[in-house]
Structure formats: structure tokens, C-alpha cells
Predict the 3D structure of the following.
Amino acid sequence: MSLKWLEWSQQLQAIAQNGLTYSNNPYDVERYKQLQAIAAEIISTYTNMESRYILDLFSLEEGYATPKVDVRGAVFKDQKLLLVREREDNCWTLPGGWVDIGESPSFAVEREVYEESGYETRATKLVALYDRNHERHGHPPLVYHVYKLFFQCELTGGTAMASLETEGAAFFGEQEIPELSLTRVVPSQISRLFEYYFNSNLQTDFD
């Protein structure tokens, strides 16, 4: 399914954000705000979100517009992959989330795995860097443009536990994968991670 409307609206928002960051001309500022409103209206038209809500999200973004960074940890045990169950949609995903300011990607994924699953890990390899917007992945639309970093992580300790965002953690074989939280991870990405697990010589995948 083509999501050109999302690509165009994100590009409009990026132009508007960059303009609001660097422009001191009040007339230009007003035009950039109009661009933001158009971008929000486009997204609102194709989703269930109110344009006012989208504009509020846009207003939180400051400085030069760049993609956000999401990290996901692939943790294997006895040929099974660790997944966590999201409270938000009751579906399963790889543990992970946004990288915080001041964190390295490897530290961020180790932190996210622990916070969401209770397991301690060590990031050992960046196996994939994906553009969430790329149509080959098939993620549902999201306001933000996101790069997703998938790390292979070595299990070092800990036990399964719930968190504020997750209500369970368990290991699944490749033929046992439960319903996935498609906003966060899609079946083709899970399959790719199993390929990396069984063939450590594969080069990092991207785009």
C-alpha cells in the first residue's frame, strides 16, 4: 500500500520545522506555521487522529528536523527469540524503544531490554538499520519519520518480569511467533533476525 501522503506530510513538517528554527521574519514564520497546519490536516484526513493533536506533537519538535531513532534487541535462548507483550495493544514485540539524549545506541538497547523484559544483555552486533517508512516493511502509518536499529544481544542474566509498558516476556521459536505489535515490528523483520541468528556471517541489512 502506497503511503505517499505520509511521506509528503512528513516532508512538509520537516520544511516547516526547519523554517521555524532559522527564520526571524514574522511573515515567513506565519507561512511555516501554515505549512505545519497543512501537514497535520493531511495526516488527520488519512488517520483517526485530530489535526489539533498532530499539531501539538509537531510543536514539541524543535531544531533541525531529523528522523527519530528506535532500537530493538534480538535476544535468543535455545534457538528461541525473546518477545515482550505490550500493554497498549496486547500484542508482542521485540523489547526496545526510543534512544534517549546522551545514550549510545548499544546502551539504549541494553537498557530497553532490561526495563521491558527483566533480562540483562550485552549488545554484540548491529544486524539491521531500517527506514520505518520504507514500504517493504509494511508498518502502520506514524506521524514521525523513524530509523529502526536492530541489535543482536547476548543474554547475560536476569529473569522475566513485567514493566509499566509490558505485561509479559517469553521466548518463542520461529514457528511459534504470536500476534505482533505491527507498529513496532513486522513478521519479515522477525524472520530476518532468525536468519542472522543461524548465520552469523551475514552482513548488516539496511533500508
Q: What stands out?
A: Residues 4-59 form one domain.
